[in-house]
Design goal:
Blueprint: H1 2-19, H2 21-34, H3 48-62, H4 73-88, H5 95-118, H6 122-149, H7 167-186, H8 193-212, H9 216-231, H10 236-253, H11 256-263, H12 272-290, H13 302-308, H14 321-354, H15 362-381, H16 391-408, H17 425-432
């Protein structure tokens, strides 16, 4: 029954994308982030992502409701990063092994550009946020209930054969999603008490699931994200009390084995896993220093470590978005990667600055602020995880860039009533408000 339901939903999204390709963007986001077909018995090997992307692209060629995607400096930097990865690919140490990941990353980034072309209105932005929150929130609520039911003795894992399969990766995805849950909660009317309480419960369960992953990097990320979320909270006293009570309750609830694992954060010299990561980081640094274009994808092998790592026999994945990009695409690639997230952060700051006196754009201020909070979680937690190409953070770019365009197209709201309008800009703004 579950297989049939998910298949019908996928087919429904795909068929709808032919006529309304923006719906295909929602379907693609759902499939690429949540991987619902991995939760079935018979659909896990079907090319459902290719089906959704194909139908969306067909709809893109047929629709007139599309725009050029380069609406923010962050998008231009993303394109530069894509071009640089295309340049570095021929210089890969293992070109054949790199091809699969190279094509996967290019597909993800290309669909990000497609989303920027097709999503235009506030409703589109809201639906995309809902698609992200549902995709990861499902695992958050489920994982939180699992953590509570098992006393935190078992780890929370993500869908098999996906970017977020591991306990560390699914935890970071949940941490990124919690601020977006908060954004949706802020859009509810004050009289919607049950809905607001439901979001609070979902955020607490998702936080419990992240802690229940037993990921040390996730603990640091959730601490940083929560602190920044508190700073952006309109009611710091009530928010602070809720966060402190939740944190103390979660830590007290977790078993001794969890506490022992977390205590090793400050004793990394005696932890084999931590030292293995540092060994991988030195390998990436030495490789990038020796090879201008980096080593390409799939460089984590004994041959490479024997040449560049301090301990040539301790082979580990990068376990850091920064050293992952550095080792695979060199210092230029790392610069573009960091510049990309700086631009996303700046878009969030721009939204906060330009909407603070516009009550009708309060939602845009909330979204820009929460995207910044989510980005803090990603940048802190990503320092200890190889999750540089996962779709979810790049959707923060989509949300901030689209919202910035929405606000910029309404600059006339802050101008005098008799200010002249140029061309048909006012008509476009009215249209985009729907």
């Amino acid at each position: 029954m579950r297989d049939i339901l998910i298949l019908l939903l996928i087919l429904g999204f795909a068929l709808a994308a032919l006529r309304r390709p923006w719906i295909g963007v929602m379907g693609w986001t759902w499939i690429s982030i949540m991987n619902p077909h991995r939760l079935t018995w018979r659909l896990e090997d079907l090319p459902v992502a290719a089906l959704m992307a194909g139908c969306t692209l067909i709809g893109l060629t047929l629709t007139r409701e599309k725009r050029q995607p380069f609406i923010s400096p962050s998008v231009a930097v993303l394109l530069m990063f894509m071009i640089w990865m295309c340049i570095t690919y021929p210089f890969s140490i293992f070109e054949d092994k790199s091809w699969e990941m190279f094509t996967r990353v290019m597909k993800i980034d290309f669909m990000i550009l497609v989303a920027l072309m097709l999503l235009r209105t506030r409703a589109h932005i809201q639906w995309l946020t809902w698609a992200i929150v549902f995709s990861i929130g499902f695992f958050g609520v489920k994982g939180g209930l699992f953590t509570i039911a098992t006393g935190g003795n078992f780890r929370v894992w993500g869908p098999a054969e996906s970017f977020i399969e591991g306990n560390n990766e699914i935890a970071l995805a949940m941490i990124i999603t919690i601020p977006l849950m908060r954004y949706l909660q802020l859009q509810l009317a004050p009289d919607k008490k049950w809905q607001r309480h439901a979001f609070t419960l979902a955020m607490l369960l998702t936080a419990a699931a992240a802690v229940g992953s037993h990921s040390r990097g996730a603990l640091l990320a959730i601490a940083a994200m929560s602190g920044f979320l508190w700073l952006r909270s309109p009611n710091k006293l009530a928010g602070g009390i809720v966060m402190v009570v939740a944190a103390v309750g979660l830590v007290a609830f977790m078993p001794e084995q969890w506490s022992s694992r977390m205590h090793t954060i400050g004793e990394y010299q005696q932890d084999a896993s931590a030292m293995g990561r540092i060994n991988a980081w030195w390998m990436a640094w030495n490789l990038a220093s020796d090879r201008f274009f980096g080593g390409g994808f799939q460089i984590y092998s004994l041959i490479v470590f024997q040449q560049y790592a301090p301990d040539p026999t301790d082979v580990h994945a990068a376990h850091s978005i920064y050293f992952q990009v550095l080792g695979e695409h060199g210092f230029v690639g790392l610069f573009l990667f960091l510049l990309l997230w700086f631009m996303v952060w700046r878009d969030g700051a721009w939204l906060r600055k330009h909407t603070q006196d516009l009550p009708e754009a309060r939602w845009a201020r909330d979204l820009g602020s929460m995207c910044q909070v989510a980005l803090v979680g990603y940048l802190v937690g990503g320092a200890f995880l190889s999750l540089a190409y996962f779709d979810l953070p790049y959707n923060l770019l989509v949300l901030t860039a689209l919202t910035r365009r929405w606000v910029a197209e309404r600059a006339w709201l802050t101008e005098p009533a008799d200010a002249p309008l140029i061309g048909n800009r006012s008509a476009k703004r009215v249209e985009a408000a729907t």
